[in-house]
Amino acid sequence: MLRAGIVGLPNVGKSTLFNAVTRTRKAEAANYPFCTIDPNVGTVVVPDSRLEPLRRIAKTTVVIPAAIEFVDIAGLVKGASAGEGLGNKFLTHIREVDAIVQVVRCFDDPDVHHVSATIDPVRDIEVINTELILSDLEAVARRRERVAKDIKRGEKAAAAEDAVLAKIETVLNEGKPALSVQLSPEEQAVARQFFLLTSKPTIFACNVKEGDLATAGSNPYVAKVRDYVGTHLACESVVISAQIESDLVDLSQEEGEAFLKELGVQESGIGSLIRATYRLLGLQTYFTAGEKEVRAWTIHIGDTAPQAAGVIHSDFERGFIKAETASYRDFVANGGWKGVKEKGVMRQEGKDYVVDDGDVLLFRFNV
């Protein structure tokens, strides 16, 4: 399962958000730095309105949605790359995730301490990014020292690796993340071996006060974040209220909807955050639907039918023969497998078929 790490400065709402996203109370949320030391981990369901219509058609009571693992990582501070605030340990935790959700404080509250004493979300983003860049620069320098010995022995692979490292080092020295380096597909394959912090796709979560979620569009802090990450980092941002999410944990669905209606918002923000994280990782969903269960399966955009089958079981990929498939729209419009067969909209696809988001699939295989 892919993992997204929740990071940010201390006291920006990371642990509160983690508890809300994962619907738990696992992460301690307190008004002081470093109340989170060891990372908390929780599995989060990806919201998908397509599952209920599929369940009704399949006449099953078992629905298994797609999921992502979220990791609550302790707050970073200026100097983390040099070990400040247990920084080296926390940076290691970030290195182990597939994507980063950076929580940015976008509210004033004198009762909630900020490590810099004032509220400036762009400054906070730059503090975090600087520490990640400095850590990556150190990692790149160490790697280049190691491959230099292999280059002297005439190893071509080492020379190719060093060329990629040199490109990355140049961009990092300009204060830009490794993700912004222009690399060929072959160079990208080499770069993935480095596990650099700033090579991880990132989404920014603007954390606003409970009463500001409905009017977040006019929040000056949110506007600054959107402008900055859009122009400098080419990243997506979403607006959330960690406090609202925390309040919703203990409410029923009906109570939660009534609570949000009172606040003037249609959705709490968690749904959009999870979907954005899913998009960030380049993932999509296909479905299997039968009397036993309806299930959402997670694959990468561009995966072929055999690769999609392999997510269910390696034997399905190894012995793949064909995939019977229909689009979600056709499947629902025609009442399931019998209907799509009768209408002639069920297709039989081979090994080269690239799965579309929302495809309903039935695999034929032999091992």
Question: How would the blueprint of this fold be written?
Answer:
Layout: E1 3-7, H1 14-21, E2 40-45, H2 51-58, E3 63-64, E4 67-72, H3 87-95, E5 99-105, H4 121-152, H5 156-173, H6 185-191, E6 202-207, H7 220-233, E7 236-240, H8 242-248, H9 253-263, H10 270-280, E8 283-289, E9 294-300, H11 305-312, H12 314-318, E10 320-326, H13 328-333, H14 337-343, E11 347-349, E12 360-365
Parallel strand pairs: 1-4, 1-5, 3-9, 5-6, 6-7
Antiparallel strand pairs: 2-4, 8-9, 10-11, 10-12
Keywords:
about 375 residues, alpha/beta, six-stranded mixed sheet
Question: Helix fraction?
Answer: 40-55%
CA gyration radius, whole angstroms: 23 Å
Unreliable spans: 25-37, 83-87
Number of helices: 14
- Summing up helix and strand content along with how strands pair, one would put the structural category as alpha/beta
Describe the structure.
The chain has helices at residues 14-21, 51-58, 87-95, 121-152, 156-173, 185-191, 220-233, 242-248, 253-263, 270-280, 305-312, 314-318, 328-333, 337-343, and strands spanning 3-7, 40-45, 63-64, 67-72, 99-105, 202-207, 236-240, 283-289, 294-300, 320-326, 347-349, 360-365. By secondary structure, it is α/β, with parallel strands linked by helices. The strands form three sheets. Strands 2-4-1-5-6-7 form a six-stranded mixed sheet, sandwiched between helices. A three-stranded mixed sheet has the order 3-9-8, with helices on both faces. The model is unreliable at 25-37 and 83-87 (pLDDT under 50).
